[in-house]
Amino acid sequence: MAPRSPRTPRSPASGSSRAKIKLGNASVNRSDIEGLRRAWRQGELVLCLGAGVSMPYGLPSWNNLVLELLFEQAQGTRQLGSMWPHYRRAVAAWMTDYFAYNPLVLARMVERDMQSKKRGNGAEKFLNCLRSHLYANQRIPKSRTTLQAVADLIAARSTSGRVSSVISFNFDDLLERELRRRCVPFQSVADSKRNNANRLSVIHAHGYVPSTGTLSRDHVVFTENDYHRLTESVFHWALAEVVERLRKNTVLFIGLSMSDPSLRRLLDASRNSDIPPHWQIQRKHQIHDHEMLMAMQDVEERARKYAKYLGSGFDEQKRPKELEASIQAALTQADTYDREVFESMGVKTIWVNEFDDISDVIDGISK
Predict the structure, then answer these.
(1) Which of 36, 41, 46 is nearest to 349 (CA)?
(2) Pairing of strands 250-254, 347-352
(3) Rama region for 232: left / alpha / beta (φ>0; ψ in -120 to 50; rest)
(4) pLDDT in tens, the chain (367 residues)
(5) 224-232 vs 103-117: helix axis angle to the nearest 10?
(6) Is the CB of residue 167 less than 8 Å from the CB of residue 205?
(7) In b/e form, how buried is each residue of 22-54, taking b as 16+ CB within 10 angstroms?
(8) Is the pTM of this model over 0.90?
(9) Can you spell out the DSSP letters for 261-309?
(10) Residue 270 and residue 248: Cα distance in Å, rounded?
(11) How many angstroms separate the CA atoms of 132 and 35, rounded?
């Protein structure tokens, strides 16, 4: 198949195309869903998946995965192994925030410690331990998930439209299992081997750790050294795959925070039009009513510390009347910041109120 020419820039959305359209519980701009439908009908839609699509199945985020592995190895923290999983992950999240730890650096310590203390094949033991922790608390979700909506969209492949390929930044094989249930022919790609053009490619850009089968350390990007090799290699197969799709396709990002500096660099480097050619689905920044009191207390505690630093004093009896409104305004402003930042990198944002609404948006592409 001949390579596609660079995407022709679309005309800016007209006033009528900015109208909202209802997709289940989600309300999105008509121009956004029409842009995704157009790409799907033309067979140019690529789905890019992050940890958010796997977490409803009980799988840990990458940060928590690193810290759980570290807890298992480090002396003095093994008592965490007997804790319930939700407490263990809560401690890991607190540890990352409180001490400003960079999990990428800690991942280097995990593998080094494991290889130095265990005899035999250190890489094999590391991979088996990684797989064990990745799937340790896997569960079956009680309701339909974003990943199932993704699999349904892929299975809707027909003469009316299709998903071109999938890029996954996750190690797990959850999507592959969903595709098998739908009898969708696919191939998992974790290296530079040539692909079968007749099957959907599920590209694991950071490596592949399926729940069963053989594992290869060469295919896993986990430690700081791995990331250095990935970003410093001009011709790394994963970078080439991602860049090609960013330049030639419409990419929909699902379940990603978009904070990965490597991904942001590739977005900037791949952009070839003034009009954003890609989309992401994000939940709006929000605090529910039952969380507002804790947020206000957190802000007041920080204000107390800053008052001490600035020498301005702090009156325990006085709380700004507009504090709650100010927090809500800050959340709204955060939405604006994110939208503008990502548009500058060529990505438009589809906002939803709840994570469950993401499935409604994905369903709306093929319907």
Answers:
(1) 36
(2) unpaired
(3) alpha
(4) 444 444 544 444 444 456 988 888 888 999 999 999 999 999 999 999 999 999 999 998 887 788 777 776 654 455 555 666 667 667 766 776 766 666 666 666 666 666 555 555 667 888 888 899 899 989 999 999 999 999 999 999 777 789 999 999 999 999 999 999 999 999 999 988 877 778 999 999 999 999 999 888 877 887 767 777 777 666 788 888 999 999 999 999 999 988 887 888 889 888 877 777 999 999 998 888 888 888 888 888 888 887 877 777 666 656 667 888 888 899 999 899 999 999 999 999 999 999 999 999 999 999 8
(5) 120
(6) yes
(7) ebeebebbebbbebbbebbeeebbbbbbbbbbb
(8) no
(9) HHHHHHHHHH---SS--EEEEEEPP---HHHHHHHHHHHHHHHHHHHHH
(10) 9
(11) 41
170 backbone dihedrals φ, ψ, rounded to 5°: -100, 150
Length of the chain: 367
Tell me the β-bridge partners of 283. 352
